[in-house]
Design a protein that fits this description.
The complex is a heterodimer of chains A (108) and B (113). With 108 residues, chain A is mainly beta. Chain A is built from no helices and eleven strands. In chain A, the strands form two sheets. In chain A, strands 2, 4, 5, 6, 9, 10 and 11 form a seven-stranded mixed beta sheet that branches. Chain A has a four-stranded antiparallel beta sheet with strand order 1-3-8-7, with no helix packed on it. The mean pLDDT of chain A is 90. Chain B has 113 residues and is an all-beta fold. In chain B, the strands form two sheets. In chain B, strands 2, 4, 5, 6, 9, 10 and 11 form a seven-stranded mixed beta sheet that branches. In chain B, a hairpin with a 2-residue loop joins β5 and β6. The radius of gyration of chain B is 13 Å and the shape is globular. The relative contact order of chain B is 0.33. The chains are: A mainly beta (108), B mainly beta (113). The interface between A and B is medium-sized, with 25 and 26 residues.
Chain lengths: 108, 113
């Protein structure tokens, strides 16, 4: 079952902050975050593991609330290069499910 | 260079004409999977493979087949394509499905008329 992402889209000016949320109806061991530019493959940002371990991107942060089965991605002091569609992914029984995506547009 | 390759990148075909999209990775990854991407629906997993000769259905397997005879290759087969399989397809590989980064191929844009 796909995780649910919100919002569907967000428009920012350079330097502004945004939060993207991801929630699942299943117990989570890990949450993945990827960014995709138009016409390109998704690129790994980070993985958050149960227990607090985090692997990935230095300039983008995220949190993982295991009890609520939710994760949030924080885009701080956004740059033009942050534009793209962000996907969260969750794993259950060796299957990976991704959310429908959040489109982020950063304007100068 | 570590990479996942897919071929072809673009394909236009007709209903019912069997086709294969190849996927190959050079990172010795055990886990490989296929996704389709449609507007508003995100990435949906079609099939995955935990290792050679071990494959299983993802969320949208109908109309697709896969095989994993070698660790590096994971082809996607459409025996009788239909217009509703028009989509953007991605292959991905990793050390595992849960706590490891997924490496995605460049994508294959398929149009079935």
């Amino acid at each position: 079952q796909q995780p649910v992402q919100s919002p569907q889209a967000v428009i920012l000016r350079e330097g502004e902050d945004a939060v993207i949320n991801c929630s699942s109806s299943k117990a989570l061991y890990s949450v993945h975050w990827y960014r995709q530019k138009h016409g390109e493959a998704p690129i790994f940002l980070m993985i958050l593991l149960k227990g607090g371990e985090q692997k990935g991107h230095d300039k983008i942060s995220a949190s993982f609330n295991e009890k609520k089965q939710q994760s949030s991605l924080y885009l701080t002091a956004s740059q033009l290069s942050y534009s793209g569609t962000y996907f969260c992914g969750t794993e259950a029984d060796y299957k990976l499910s991704f959310g429908a995506g959040t489109t982020v547009t950063v304007r100068a | 260079e570590a990479q996942v390759t897919q071929n072809p990148r673009y394909l236009i075909t007709v209903t019912g004409k069997k086709l294969t999209v190849t996927c190959s990775q050079n990172m010795n990854h055990e886990y490989m999977s296929w996704y389709r991407q449609d507007p508003g629906l995100g990435l949906r997993q079609i099939y995955y493979s935990m290792n050679v000769e071990v494959t299983d259905k993802g969320d949208v397997p109908e109309g697709y087949k896969v095989s994993r005879k070698e660790k590096r290759n994971f082809p996607l087969i459409l025996e009788s394509p239909s217009p509703n399989q028009t989509s953007l397809y991605f292959c991905a590989s990793s050390l595992g499905p849960d706590s490891y980064e997924q490496y995605f191929g460049p994508g294959t844009r398929l149009t079935v008329t």
